Amino acid sequence: MAPPGVPTMAEPAGRARAPRINPELLPAAVVLACAVLLIVASTLLNPGSSFVPQLDAVLVTSIFLVVASFGQGLTILLGGIDLSIGVVVGLAAIMVSTLTNGSNAAILWVVPATLGFAAFIGLVNGLGVALARVPPFIMTLASGISFYGVGLAFTTGLAQRPVAPGLVALMNARVAGVPIPVLILLGFVIIATIFQNGTSDGRKLYALGSSPGAARVLGLPIAGLNILVYTLSGLCAGISGILLAGYSSAATIDIGDPLLLPTIAAVVIGGARVVGGRGIYLGTFAGALFLSALETIITVLNLSQGVRDIIEGAIIVFALLLQSERWRVARG
Description:
This protein is mainly α. The chain has helices at 25-45, 51-77, 85-100, 107-130, 136-155, 165-170, 180-198, 200-210, 212-217, 222-248, 260-269, 281-300, 305-331; strands at residues 174-175, 178-179. Helices cover 70% and strands 1% of the residues.
C-alpha cells in the first residue's frame, strides 16, 4: 500500500487523496456554532452585558451537564441508558451538604465518600445490566427510585444544611481572570475525550456498541465493559452533584432532577446514535453547551418550566429525525 498522499495507479498523478475528516466532527461543529450564536443572542437580549462575561456564565453553568452527560453518553454508546443520573446527582449534592454542614475540615473525607457512594450506585446498575441481564431502562429506573427512597428516608425532617465554604469558594473563584469552574470543565473535556476516543477501552466500547455479537466473537469483556460504563456514569453524576452543591451553596434531594433529560438531549444533539456504536464526546460537549446557552435565553425571556420541557423535548425529536435521515442517506 502506498503511503498516504502518494498517487497510485487508481489515482491520476498530481491528484493526492485529500485527508479524511472524521464525519463525527461535523454535527459537533454545527452544534457548537449554534451554541455560540445562542450566546451572542443572549448577549443582545440582555442589555448591558457583553459576550465574554456571558460566555463565562454559560460555561460555568454548563459544567454540571457537561460532566453528567459524559456518563450518559457512554451508556448510550453501548445502546443503553442511565435514568438514575438525576437521582445520583441529587443524592451526591445532599450528601456533601449534610456531611460537611458548613465545615471545610470535613471536605477531605466527605468528597471521596460521596464519589464512592455515587460510583457504587453506578456499579449496582452495571451488575444488574451485565450479569442479571435486566434491560438498562428498567434497571436504572428501578435503582434510581430505590436509592431516592433511601435518601429521602435519611433526609426527612432535616433542615437544609450549608455546604462547606471551601466548595462554595471553589465555584466562585478565578485564576488569572478565568473562573475555576471553566478550568475544571476544560480539564474534564480533555480527559473525557482522550478516554472515549483515544484509549483501547474506548475503542472496545465502540466495538461493543456497534456489534455485540462481533464483540463476543472477538472475546471482548462484555460484562466488564458494561459494569465499567455504568460505574463511570454514577461517578460522573456524583462529581456533578458535588459541583452543583458548591455552586448553589446548599442542596435538596431533587436538585439533580432537571439534569436527566438534558443529559440524554446533549448526547443525541451531539450526533450519537441512540442504538449505540456511534458518537464522540466533543459532540456531547457541544450539545451540553448548546442546551446551557438555550437555558440562558429561556431564563432571560422568563419562560415557564413547561415551555422549557417542550423546547427540550422538541429538540430531541428533531435531532432524532435528522439522525434517522442521515443514516438513511448513508445506507443509500
